Amino acid sequence: MRRPAPAALVLLCAVLAGCSAPERSGQSARPAPTASAPAASTATPAAESAYTFRLPMARYSYTEAEYALVQSAEHVLAKRCMARYSLSYRPPAPAPPPPPVDRRYGLAEKGNADRFGYRLPPAPTPSPAPADERPGAAEILVLYGRQGAGGRAGKLEHHGKAIPEKGCLGQAMEDFRKGYEHPEGTDAASRIATRSHQESLTDPKVRAALGKWSACMAESGYSYASPMEPLGKYLEGPVTAEERATAGTDVACKRSTGLLETWFGVESGIQRRMIGPEAAVLEELRDRHVRKVAAARRIIAEG
């Protein structure tokens, strides 16, 4: 699939998922956690900007802490698989919690606006593993399978024992997730999250609030019809004083006009209405999430 252009990517995140750091929509963007149970997430977004995470559809998504548990469990399963090849595996230490960011309705965090303008705050990175803890060629091959084979063709083996094509880690992820997949529920959740935002844009209350926001911006010399417009303008190059000033005015106008709370309230109502006919399939999705997280806790506890 073709990668979307930067502007399209920002707008897509804002419309569909709110966008957080690290990227939520592509789970591969998350750093691998340690195999021990992670502490409860400290990345709960501040009340001033936690709109995506408070919408009714958030009930059917994993929290950061839950997702970290699932990843930790997958690494425990990979560690067990590696042991069957008489190889040790020490998962990398987790990165610090990502900074909370919600762009569903455009920029909402004053602190981020003042520091980073419209850019996402830099994601914290974990400390590199000590040299004596880094995996060798054999560990990489067994852990990652074909990806760790360095272009090698033919059968993958370690001392005569076949290696899964996706390696111990890929196989662990696939096997663990397989029992909890619910495509129908996932499709319903994605569809509602997308359509509710689209429908909210046509609501008279939201349109009126957007008009007030645009007028507020104009009072400071900025001409924007939508909060998504400046998101696409400031994507490249260093953050300038102009960008910070625009971003700060943007957030201030959202607050003074009540745009964010109005938009959130309208979309919440739309989502509740849309959830009704899909309630059974969505509750099944949530049930599988709950059972998967519980299974992850058991796997981690057993080690």
Describe what you observe in this structure:
With 303 residues, the protein is an all-alpha fold. It has one domain. Helix content is 52%, strand content 1%. Strands 1-2 form a two-stranded antiparallel ribbon. A hairpin with a 2-residue loop joins strand 1 (157-158) and strand 2 (161-162). The two termini are 38 Å apart. 33% of the residues are buried.
Provide the structure class. mainly alpha
Number of helices: 10
Mean pLDDT, all residues: 84
Number of strands: 2
> What is the chain-wise order of helices and strands?
HHHHEEHHHHHH
Calculate Rg over CA atoms: 22 Å
Unreliable residue runs: 1-47
Question: Strand share of the residues?
Answer: under 5%
Helix content percent band: 40-55%
Number of domains: 1
Strand order of the largest sheet: 1-2
Kindly, what is the distance between the CA atoms of the first and last residues, rounded to a whole number of angstroms?
38 Å
Largest sheet: 2 strands, antiparallel
Broad shape: globular
Question: What are the key terms here?
Answer:
two-stranded antiparallel ribbon; 2 strands; 52% helix; 303 residues; disordered N terminus; single chain; 1% strand; mainly alpha
How do the helices and strands line up, and which of them pair or pack?
Blueprint: H1 6-16, H2 64-83, H3 110-116, H4 137-144, E1 157-158, E2 161-162, H5 167-178, H6 183-200, H7 204-219, H8 228-233, H9 241-257, H10 259-302
Antiparallel strand pairs: 1-2
